[in-house]
Write a structure and sequence with these properties.
alpha/beta, Jelly Rolls, 11 helices, 17% helix, Alpha-L-AF_C, glycoprotein, extracellular matrix, hydrolase
Length: 685
């Protein structure tokens, strides 16, 4: 039987390496005999994992190692995490011109009873488009309106999820030369099922007037719509129509179920708002932070032309910073550096953009008496946000103006905020940068085999100088499907490699985070949702098994197997915040089609420090490697936790084919953990 050692002893662990290797050879021989004769396991392969749990061989991993990356893609924010139910609330989705597109708004009534158009008559300077509704019928006379009146309706983002007993705040601006008598309500998708209705009567609305209405649902329908109707002849103008659930997270505007799924991951950081969304296909459509702050009615919105949909920018610069704070995560702001996919600002002319970013930093970090900090305070957050990281651009390293522009931003930011860590777009894992940086960005999207093999990509990366920020990683293409077990296993193997190289890697985040099931611009994603449902893909559940790694202690481990290319393992110690117990966690990915009999041998522990109870085994696997989760079976591929009955420093375990297994062994007993399911993991926040 041929075998090959995969040595993961860290570079600063030379003192224990010789002993590890001697023990490895001896114990592996014992292991093979024991597995074949004593355990009775019908395993195709055998392997040995040596774990050195001594303090001398251990290394603390970064507190920031694993986080999340939010990009406005797949309607992740608009129609997703941001709970606004109205799509195209300002009638601006055709751009700030005339006539404008009003989609998905639609007309109630026919051409003989109502005429709907747009015009540039809004009271808001930065979004001038307003909706003009001319009612041709009346409640009396020869031309009677149909029952309920005529007008317009908005179905939201592929249907609004309206739930019985819940309240929704409707805000809109209206103007008319005559008195108005409006019926505003929530109905089913065809307008027949009435869920909530309020009549708005006003005698003097010749000037733009803000109307606020609280609607309480008397029924449930995940495909509801908002209707604005009138049965009074005349002309009515509408603008800036918003409908928000009253039960968003802390009232901050985040959809509770989706926010909860993020919180459950315990992310150390959140990178935002993109991605290509930051760059834009053209600079005129890039994300500009100043246009996303202040009252929501005054935000102009913009076309995300890379992913080809309009955003009203209710989820703006302030909200992203608030999201990070609510998640107890560090914000990482990615800003445009004067470069899009198709045009660039010459370095000679980039200084106005530099000042724009300095203003954005003052908005986040400045005192409430500063120019931009006072605007943040007026929005409800007098204290500064904890912004420590910024990324200059996204995937722009090969652009002709990048280095010149980068240096302008770098110098100005470091002069004003020397503590801020700056992330370059240029990869320094194999070649040194030709410009200063605190971190460098690294992206990987590939097939499953390649992603798994990249677990050792950072083995030879420099330990001095800028650290790696793997801000986007995922299996992509046929192997990914809409989120397969195969993809999750490859990514888990890659992240084990990240743990082992966490002296060269400071951060890592999966991408993309969200996908609305009605708008798959990119597959696969961590979380899939509709207006009323959500589920985590196997890649989402895989990340749950790494959320305790932030700030944990990495132990030296060596794996020997006769199929070493398909196995990878790591060992850490971590403290459970719930029961305050300390655990030794061993994670193993079996990326092969064979069952593996694994012997785990642990050395370096204090005497009797490994308890015989309270240990658990968590496994992520399924009957088919291409299995996916779905709304019908949302946890088909999700972690299953069981108790480990026999615990010792020498353990024999079985790894299923194509599986990710995590063992948590109790080190210092204070209380006993109970086993959990995927539901328990998800709700643990």
């Amino acid at each position: 039987m041929s075998s090959r050692n995969i040595e993961w002893c860290e570079k600063d662990m030379d003192s224990s390496r010789s002993l590890c290797c001697i023990l490895l050879l001896v114990l592996f021989g014992i292991s093979v005999q024991y597995q074949c004769s004593a355990s009775g396991i019908d395993a195709n392969e055998t392997a040995l994992l040596l774990v050195n749990a001594s303090e001398a061989s251990a290394r603390k991993m970064p507190d920031t190692l694993f986080g999340i990356f939010f990009e406005e893609i797949n309607h992740a924010g608009a129609g997703g995490l941001w709970a606004e139910l109205i799509s195209n609330r300002g009638f601006e989705s055709g751009g700030h011109n005339f006539p404008s597109s009003i989609e998905p708004w639609s007309i109630i009534g026919d051409e003989s009873s109502v005429i709907v158009s747009t015009e540039l008559s809004s009271c808001f300077d930065r979004n001038k488009v307003a909706l003009r509704v001319q009612v041709l019928c009346d409640s009396k006379g020869a031309k009677l309106c149909p029952d309920g009146g005529v007008g317009v309706y908005n179905p939201g983002f592929w249907g609004m999820n309206i739930e019985q007993g819940k309240r929704y705040k409707l805000v809109f601006y209206v103007r008319s030369q005559e008195s108005i008598n409006l019926s505003v309500g929530l109905t089913g998708s065809n307008g027949l099922k009435k869920l909530a209705t309020v009549v708005v009567v006003a005698a003097n609305v010749s000037n733009w007037t803000k109307v606020e209405v609280l609607l309480e649902a008397e029924g449930t329908d995940p495909n509801s719509r908002l209707e604005l109707r009138s049965a009074t002849k005349g002309v009515i103008w509408f603008d800036q129509v918003s409908l928000m659930p009253m039960d968003t997270y802390k009232g901050h505007g985040f959809r509770k179920d989706l926010f909860g799924m993020l919180k459950a991951l315990k992310p150390a950081f959140i990178r935002f708002p993109g991605g290509c969304f930051v760059e834009g296909g053209w600079l005129r459509n890039a994300f500009r932070w100043k246009e996303t702050i202040g009252p929501w009615e005054e935000r102009p919105g913009h076309l995300g032309d890379v992913w080809n949909y309009w955003t009203d920018d209710g989820l703006g610069h302030f909200e992203f910073l608030q999201l990070a704070e609510d998640l107890d995560a560090l914000p990482i702001w990615v800003f445009n550096n004067g470069i899009s996919h198709n045009d660039q600002v010459d370095t000679f002319h980039v200084l106005p953009l530099v000042q724009e970013i300095l203003d954005g930093l003052e908005f986040a970090r400045g005192g409430s008496d500063s120019k931009w900090g006072s605007i943040r305070a007026a929005m409800g957050h007098p204290e500064p946000f904890d912004l420590r990281y910024v990324a200059i651009g996204n995937e722009d390293c090969d652009k002709t103006q990048y280095r010149g522009n980068y240096l302008k931003f770098y110098s100005a930011i470091k002069e004003a905020y020397p503590d801020i860590k700056i992330i370059s777009n240029c990869d320094a894992s194999a070649k040194a940068l030709d410009h200063p940086a605190d971190l460098y960005d690294f992206h990987i999207y590939d097939n499953a085999s390649t992603v798994f093999s990249l677990a050792n990509h950072f083995d030879d990366a420099p330990r001095n100088g800028p650290k790696a920020f793997i801000s986007e990683y995922a299996v992509h293409g046929n192997d990914a499907g809409k989120g397969s077990l195969l993809a999750a296993l490859a990514e888990a193997g890659f992240l084990i490699g990240v743990e082992k190289n966490s002296d060269a890697v400071e951060m890592a985040s999966y991408a993309p985070l969200f996908a609305n099931n009605n708008d798959w611009m990119w597959k696969a994603d961590a979380i899939v949702f509709t207006s009323s449902q959500a589920y985590g893909t196997p890649s989402y559940w895989m990340q749950h098994l790494f959320k305790e790694s932030n700030g944990a202690t990495l132990l030296s481990s060596t794996l020997q197997a006769n199929s070493s290319d398909s196995l990878i393992a790591s060992a850490i110690t971590w403290r459970n915040e719930i029961d305050d117990n300390e655990y030794l966690r061993i994670k193993v990915v079996n990326f092969g089609s064979s069952t593996v009999a694994l012997k785990i041998s642990i050395s370096g522990l204090e005497q009797n420090s490994l308890q015989s109870f309270g240990a658990t085994k968590t496994t992520l696997t399924s009957t088919n490697v291409m299995d996916e989760n779905s709304f019908e079976d949302p946890k088909k591929v999700s972690p299953v936790e069981t108790l480990v009955k026999q615990v010792s420093e020498n353990m024999d375990v079985v790894l299923s084919p194509y599986s990710f297994t995590s063992f948590d062994l109790l080190r210092k007993s204070i209380s006993i953990r109970t086993t959990t399911t995927a539901s328990g993991l998800e709700s643990s926040f």
